[in-house]
């Protein structure tokens, strides 16, 4: 049950990464459009939003990778423990 819950959390985090990356891409497109219309304040604001969203996506992605590495390490330990002979 814990593994299933962990998988659900990971899926939700990947969805958040995708949403933030889409938000960043949209903000970059809007910044380009603002620049073409000589709306430089808007351009700067959109660029800032894009950068923040991209940074947040990167942070979440790093958390996912760290959790995956920990899970793999723990799974390896569990397999080793299951295979070792009993020492009673």
Question: What report would you give on this structure?
Answer:
The chain is an all-alpha fold and 88 residues long. Helix content is 90%, strand content 0%. It contains 2 helices and no strands. It has helices at 2-36, 40-83. Helix 1 (2-36) runs antiparallel to helix 2 (40-83). The longest helix is centred in the C-terminal third of the chain and has 44 residues, at 40-83.
Give the helices and strands, then pairings.
Layout: H1 2-36, H2 40-83
Helix pairs in contact: 1-2
> What does the main sheet amount to?
none
Strand content: under 5%
**What structural class do you assign from the helix and strand content?**
mainly alpha
Could you estimate the helical fraction of the residues in percent?
over 70%
